[in-house]
Amino acid sequence: MANWTDCLNFGISIAKQASEVVLSAFQQHKEVKLKSSPADLVTETDQRVEKILISAIRNRYPQHRFIGEESVAAGERLELTDSPTWIIDPIDGTVNFVHRFPFVAISIAFTFNKQIQFGIVYSCVEDKLFYAQRGGGAFLNGEPLYVSGQQDISRCVVVTEIGAERDDVALSTTTSNICRLLKLPVHGVRALGTAAVDMCQVATGGADAYYHIGMHCWDIAASAIIVQEAGGVVMDTDGSEFDMMSRRVIAASSATVADRIAQVIQAFPCCRDDEDNCRCGATGVN
Ligand SMILES: O=P(O)(O)O[C@H]1[C@H](O)[C@@H](O)[C@H](O)[C@@H](O)[C@@H]1O
Ligand SMILES: [Mg+2]
Ligand SMILES: [Mg+2]
């Protein structure tokens, strides 16, 4: 059984180093480019942080492979193999970063044999380091994390996102899902603007569930294992097993709450991340 602890520790150290780049740019003016929609932004800092992370990892682990949000956006093929693979979102919450809304994270997941072995989500402005290794528990700044265990949907705070998809079908599905949950009722619905930090709230017990349709593997792969190792449940919105490439996810404090949300919400169609002609994450931005 391979032990990836050295990779995890290296990942944490480079996430903290890279966050210095994010924080030094946070208050500065940013040049913004558009990707898949007018709400899907990228800055030079996103691209620079991804290059810093990948070159540092490649230098230490030359045989490892990468799936990086901005590399895919620049046209690199997205292919998950059995090889050790780093799945990187250099800035999760780029809209927040551009607007100086203080929830931006570096998200790094690591897979082997296509199974997530560890995840790191570093919320830079908050200085909150979430991480988990398979079988080793979940932590926030070194303290163990546990989900709320809530079983009653009417006592839940649910986190979701109004993503970058702004076509009529996505918007009507997204808003009707929120209305259906509010009518159950749930205690509240929240959105921080970063899928990774949203989902980590479930691991802390501060939220009881998170769901999203349309995000990408790099948005949620790290936080998925953090929720699982905190005792939570992660699955597809249709109730099937979690599939990080499907662009649909429910993370919850319990299977009861996850199943209830799967009954209530609907998904809009979007191509899989690993679909060859899926151009949702890539727009040839250089
Ligand atoms: O900020 P990025 O890395 O682009 O990720 C966001 C994604 O683009 C949005 O569609 C989602 O709604 C956010 O939750 C992601 O964090
Ligand atoms: Mg993201
Ligand atoms: Mg990003």
User: How many distinct beta strands?
Assistant: 14
Number of domains: 2
Query: Mean pLDDT, as a whole number?
Result: 95
N-to-C span? 40 Å
CATH architecture of the largest domain: 2-Layer Sandwich
Ions, cofactors and other bound molecules:
ligand LZGB4YJL, magnesium ion
| Radius of gyration over all CA atoms, rounded | 17 Å
EC number: 3.1.3.25
Keywords: Hydrolase, Magnesium, Metal-binding
GO molecular function, one term: inositol monophosphate 1-phosphatase activity
Enzyme class: hydrolase
Short summary:
It catalyses: a myo-inositol phosphate + H2O = myo-inositol + phosphate. This protein is an alpha+beta fold and 286 residues long. It has 8 helices and 14 strands.
Keywords:
alpha+beta, Fructose-1,6-Bisphosphatase, Chain A, domain 1, D-Maltodextrin-Binding Protein, domain 2, 7-stranded mixed β-sheet, 5-stranded mixed β-sheet, binds ligand LZGB4YJL
Describe the structure in your own words.
This protein has 2 domains: 140 residues, 2-Layer Sandwich (Fructose-1,6-Bisphosphatase, Chain A, domain 1); 112 residues, D-Maltodextrin-Binding Protein, domain 2 (3-Layer(aba) Sandwich), CATH 3.40.190. A 7-stranded mixed sheet has the order 3-4-5-6-7-8-9, sandwiched between helices. The chain has a 5-stranded mixed sheet with strand order 11-10-12-14-13, with helices on both faces. A two-stranded antiparallel ribbon has the order 1-2. The N and C termini lie far apart (40 Å). It has 8 helices and 14 strands. The chain is an alpha+beta fold. The chain binds ligand LZGB4YJL and magnesium ion (2 copies). The site of the ligand O=P(O)(O)O[C@H]1[C@H](O)[C@@H](O)[C@H](O)[C@@H](O)[C@@H]1O has 14 residues, from β4. One magnesium ion (MG) binds next to β4. Pfam families: Inositol_P.
